[in-house]
Each structure stands twice: as structure tokens, then as C-alpha cells.
Structure of Chemotaxis protein MotA:
Amino acid sequence: MKNKTSIGLFLSIALFILGFFIHGNISLYFNISGLLIVCGGTLAASLISFKFEQLRIVCKVLLSAYKNPIKKETEIINILIDLSIRSKMEGILSLQDQENETTVLFLRRALGCLVDGYQIEQIRDILNTEMYFFKLRREDCERILRTIADYFPAFGIIGSVVGLITMLGGIGDTSIILKAIPIALTSTLYGLIFANFFFLPFASIIRERTNQELLLQKIIMEGVIAISTEMNSVILKTKLESFLTPSEREASLVSYAKIRERFAIEQKEKSENNDQRVT
């Protein structure tokens, strides 16, 4: 799936760039003055709007989203089922050996609460608080990226205005007008490309990853609480698979024959038919 995404991305970018080559010289789309106005203005506005530490955190989150693949739901469920079996075989304190081996920080925190003997209500409250503020932090990163994406077109327009002013000031001098036209046009182009090709997709990536990680955290919370109640491993597996799509579940659906047998549906239908014959 990752290879397919990379191939699709490469082809899409190639088609996008090809559109610049078909009608005109590619060098016409490069203008240092317009690029400096758009990028410099946006960077200055970002530094005025947000602290440097906030911008650093956004870059860190973006790098992590691209470099560190997120675990699948089925992997987390298998880990929790394995922990459930170990807790029954070796006792609940044996989970402490597994705490430092897991790669998911949220799972480690949840297991830490479990090993320390917290009550179910306390575990749920702690983990819900962790999830809530995790979501707030990620939403803050997304908000920063969307704000920066709004700055780019605005400074693109500023660059266009600068080019137009230069053109008006050079009326009568063809050389000045020819130098000002690329600034006026490419500035808007740069602003739109940076906003829609980079920063808005970056914000969407953070939102998508946040939703996936929140789902994993919900699975972990329910699984750890179930382990603390010594829930049967089979029942735990069935419960956690409720978070998965039907195509990802290993369990097969119960047949209609078993449903009829369990609820005596056939006998009920026969009794109703007999009652109708008697009447």
C-alpha cells in the first residue's frame, strides 16, 4: 500500500509539472523577487503569530508522521490479547516486564497505571485526560499549518501589488515593465502553490494521523481496563474487534441456523401456524 501511494504521488507530481512545460518555457515560472516576497513575508508573519517553540513542535510532528509508521489496529489488539493471557498465567505484576518493551507510549502509560494497581475508574479518567490533551495538541499543530497556508496567498497578492506598482512607475520604459510583470504574476502563483500543494496537505496529514492514533488509544484503554477485570481472552478479542472494519475481523459471523436454534424461532413459527389452523 505504501509503494502504491508513492507511485501515485510521483505520477501526480509529474503530471502537475508537465502542465508547466506544455505551454511555455519553464524558466518563466522562476522569479527570485516574487519567491523572496512570498516566503519571507510568510515566515515573518508566522514568527509574529506563533512562538518559535510552537513552530519547532509542528516540524517535529510532521517529521514523525512521515518517518514513523503508525501501528495497525490488529497489531495493538494482538498485543493486548497476549498481555491478557500473560496476566492470567503469571499474574498481573508480570505485565511490568512488558511495559518497557512496547513501542507505543500510550500503551506503556496505560500498563503503568495497571501495574501500579489503579482502580478502573482512575485508569479510565487518566487515559481519557491523556487522550483529550493529546487531541488538543495535535489540533493546535493543524491550526498553525492552516494559518500559515492562509498567509501564503495573501503575500502572493502583496507580491503582485509590488509588481504592479513597479510597472506603473516604469511607464515609458519597456525594460522596467518587462522586469515587473514576472514579479506580479509569479508571486500569486507561488502563494497558491505553497498553500495548496504543501501546507494544507500537511495539515490534513496531521488530522488523519491524529484520528488513527486516537482510535488506537481508545482500543488500548478498553483493552487495559478489560485486562484489569480479568476478562476472558476470547471475549476480549471479540470486544476489541468491534473497533475494526468487518473486512479486518478474523471471526466469522454466526449462522442463521444457530440463531434459529438458540432462540427457537422455528418452534415459534410452527406454534403460530398451528394456532391459525385451530381458529
Residues 127 and 221 are 7 Å apart (CA to CA). The mean pLDDT is 82. The chain has eleven helices and no strands.
